[in-house]
Amino acid sequence: MLNKVSNTPLSVDWLLDKFNQSRKYSTDLIRGLSAEDCQSQSMEDASPAKWHLAHVTWFYEVMVLKVLERNFQYWNPQFAVLFNSYYNGVGDKHPRSKRGLLTRPSLEEVLQWRKNIEDRINHLIKENTSSELQWLIQLGINHEQQHQELLLTDIQHLFFNNSLLPAYSSEAINIPLVINPFEWIDGISGLVEIGFQGEGFHFDNESPAHTSFNYPHVISNQLVSNAQWLLFLQDGAYQDPRWWLDAGWAWVQAERITAPLYWNVDDNKQYCQFSLNGNQPLNPLAPVSNISYFEADAFARWSQKNIPEFKGARLPTESEWEAFAKVKPDLASNLFGKVWQWTSSNYNPYPGYQPWGGVTGEYNGKFMVNQMVLRGSSAYTPKGHARVSYRNFFPTHARWQMTGLRLAKDGF
Length: 412
Ligand SMILES: [Fe+2]
What we know:
Blueprint: H1 12-29, H2 35-39, H3 49-68, H4 79-82, H5 107-127, H6 131-160, E1 184-186, E2 190-194, E3 210-214, E4 217-220, H7 226-234, H8 246-255, E5 263-265, E6 271-275, E7 278-281, H9 293-306, E8 313-314, H10 318-327, E9 340-346, E10 372-375, E11 392-394, E12 403-404, E13 408-410
Parallel strand pairs: 9-12
Antiparallel strand pairs: 1-4, 2-3, 4-13, 5-6, 6-7, 8-13, 9-10, 10-11
Helix pairs in contact: 1-5, 1-6, 3-5, 3-6
The protein binds fe (ii) ion.
């Protein structure tokens, strides 16, 4: 039994529009890429663009058409294995680390398969207005949006590993600058309501809505900037175990971490940052990005002692972040659309949490260990995807997503 968003039927035209828009956006994202660009995989965490395009199509074929289409037939039953990500309830999977070796099917065939599945989903949406189908389509759209963001972050990582440091796009990626004067703002303390409320699509990990308790605290109206991170780096913090969690220090040493992922030094010894626009001089006013939880945590500890206004600083909890974002959205205009913000909260189920039923139950719940929650959204997050209750999550060492931080501190 699936959790349905609402028993109120959605407009068929609205759903068709959302579905077709989201499908088009995926293929728009590869317009400037070659078939070779779409083929390669830079590391196990990242997937080829072709695989992303295929996997989100697999999702509709296996999770929707196979269940609800009359006279269902696979485009190619072998794709059910090739493009299964992590759903054990669906069957076998091609190994994640070997997605870049899938030279067959070709990009051309994947695009043909996408078109076939799109036509069939369009037909199904028109003939089946059940809440089950409508919910599954919304899940498919939101799932594809998540992969659109991953497609961009994975291309960035792939291109960073090319000595030519190619640009994905010559258009400026819109990362608004940190420009407002820094300010600590009173957080929302006491009993606060957390989690998704109301109608509309949301992931199972955002519910149930529940009461949480926040101790008195203040939250920064700003994201930590590259200029502030440069102070951390130039003070030798990457070489100083005082600031690091034990596991973080082991990671820094083992991986020889000395800067955020995409920072590098050019021939003139100036710091640069690689982005989808190519390699560019580091912008001191931009929010720091592509840092791990370990780095965010170390920065907070270091900044307590080294940046006067950050005395007592720490990462916010996800409950502090959400309560603040709900009540004071205007006071921190950089909550969304810049960088995901690490919180100090473990990715745990909310009180009373139950995963969705069926194979979609594997979507979120089984990852609730050894990961930290991030809030907000990034410049690569598709428009309309994130919410104030949205919970992103990554392991403590991951940093190929656009991940940054804002600080909080106890305030009595
Ligand atoms: Fe997926």
